[in-house]
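Quick one:
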Amino acid sequence: MLTLEEFRDRFHRARTLEREQGGDHDLNPGMSVPGDCRPASVLIPVIGREHEPTILLTRRAADLPHHAGQVSFPGGMVERSDRDAVDTALRETEEEIGLDRSHVDVIGQLNTYVTRTGFVVTPVVGLVRPPFETRPDPVEVAAVFEVPLSFVLDRSNHQRHSREWQNQVRYFYVFPHPEHYIWGATAGMLVNLAELLQDRHPV
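Output:
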């Protein structure tokens, strides 16, 4: 099991590797991506729990205009007042789940992730040490939960599923959680994080 400091060290070492931009197209070669992708940013909160780190996720409210009811990281679209991708991720996290940025130690970013729905997302990785409080905004967030880091790093949980969409078969990652359907871009970013951490230090 990794401690929070071991996670930080492994992440910093792995970030020296050259990586290409990821996205939904990773599993779907030839998939068209909108040319006017909207910039967005999410926070990947790694929580320093006593037994092992966990990763905080949310389930979006059922009536939102984008990705309603889906599991996601806290985050959203870039606003003009945001200084950078980190500021966007921290602001959106405060607005969505009430986690104050003073509790988040940002240690870096993953490469951007392009979605089929037209977003180019910057995943910001931050360490969070308990105790802290969350106050989910019920308009945006239906649930807040955590998954163990070992669950994310276990390659047997990086399942590839498919479904037909607009007369084409699309492939995507799914994590087999017993209560929440973790799939799509969120699952793809978790796979990218796991692969990054395991490039030099296989688990």
